[in-house]
């Protein structure tokens, strides 16, 4: 490989590490070894004479130089996607059925407009959207594409991390504005111990929201329980109490008030995945590229960037 080819290879590796937050996650995305990822990062840091990542207990974190470089790579990557779409449209319009699986919470609060735009962009592609909180088996071809919250990328799939998913404590504006007392967020959870909470029932005991309420001795304040986060959010909108909700559910809803968001230690990740055998299939690649680009544009909603979200209300 010539020097220019090595440079583009190393840039792709930087982006993969930034998205995955670890060398092993980047290795899975790129289909190369952990050691090779490490070597690529060292190579480009030597070439640029700049440190791009800091290593801490949470993984690899971008330095200021790394953030600047990653922004440029992402923009270039998006420009390439647009160009590829234009070429695909000129040469061969993708067509056929694409089955996508995601969760009901993501679909109703975040993904539905993006799917509508996808169908308009590719009118010859038929979309079949399945909602499930279980991980659909892409190996058995139960779906071609999965958009899932997960802390890790399954080893038998390929794709990329699109964003972090964060949560916060929310109430109804007209009921709970007084709790802030002019502040941006509450500074003491004790203020919330005498208020009715709404939360998940035991069927959702695997959720970190459920465990957080238990660990902070707040589950006893949960007076109404649901087996769906959609129902929990609706109960908050109707004045039933306060609840922990994903930030994206509340970010564009003017009836919901962020009492404390995002909550520390709740980070999950949103992954866009497909089966390795399908990633070069025209209609799958078109959908993966489109979804990755459009979700990235709205990742501030997923990550609890309140100022950016308010600008979009």
UniProtKB/TrEMBL annotation:
Residues 6-63 form the HTH lysR-type domain. Belongs to the LysR transcriptional regulatory family. InterPro entries: LysR-type_TF_proteobact-type, LysR_HTH_N, LysR_subst-bd, WH-like_DNA-bd_sf, WH_DNA-bd_sf. This is HTH lysR-type domain-containing protein. GO terms for biological process: DNA-templated transcription. SUPFAM superfamilies: Periplasmic binding protein-like II, Winged helix' DNA-binding domain. The lineage of its organism: Bacteria, Pseudomonadati, Pseudomonadota, Alphaproteobacteria, Rhodospirillales. Keywords: DNA-binding, Transcription, Transcription regulation. It comes from Kiloniella litopenaei. It comes from the Bacteria. The keyword Disulfide bond does not apply. GO terms for molecular function: DNA-binding transcription factor activity; sequence-specific DNA binding.
């Amino acid at each position: 490989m010539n020097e220019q080819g090595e440079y583009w290879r190393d840039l792709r590796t930087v982006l993969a590490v930034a998205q995955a937050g670890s060398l092993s996650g980047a290795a899975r995305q790129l289909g190369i070894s952990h050691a090779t990822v490490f070597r690529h990062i060292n190579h480009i840091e030597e070439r640029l004479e700049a440190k791009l990542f800091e290593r801490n207990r949470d993984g690899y974190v971008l330095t200021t130089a790394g953030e600047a470089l990653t922004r440029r790579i992402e923009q270039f990557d998006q420009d390439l996607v647009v160009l590829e779409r234009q070429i695909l449209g000129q040469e061969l319009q993708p067509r056929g059925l694409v089955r996508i699986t995601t969760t009901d919470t993501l679909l109703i609060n975040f993904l539905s407009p993006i799917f509508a735009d996808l169908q308009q962009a590719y009118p010859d592609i038929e979309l079949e959207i399945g909602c499930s909180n279980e991980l659909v088996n892409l190996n058995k071809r139960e779906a071609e594409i999965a958009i899932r919250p997960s802390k890790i990328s399954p080893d038998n799939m390929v794709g990329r991390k699109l964003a972090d998913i964060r949560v916060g404590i929310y109430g109804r504006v007209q009921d709970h504005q007084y709790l802030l007392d002019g502040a941006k967020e509450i500074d003491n959870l004790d203020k919330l111990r005498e208020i009715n909470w709404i939360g998940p029932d035991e069927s959702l005991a695997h959720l970190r929201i459920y465990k957080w309420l238990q660990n902070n001795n707040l589950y006893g304040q949960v007076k109404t329980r649901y087996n769906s986060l959609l129902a929990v959010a609706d109960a908050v909108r109707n004045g039933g109490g306060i609840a922990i909700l994903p930030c994206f559910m509340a970010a564009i809803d003017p009836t919901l008030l962020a009492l404390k968001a995002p909550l520390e230690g709740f980070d999950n990740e949103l992954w866009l995945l497909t089966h390795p055998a399908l990633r070069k299939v025209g209609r799958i690649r078109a959908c993966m590229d489109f979804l990755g680009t459009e979700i990235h544009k709205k990742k501030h909603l997923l990550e609890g960037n309140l100022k950016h979200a308010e600008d979009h209300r």
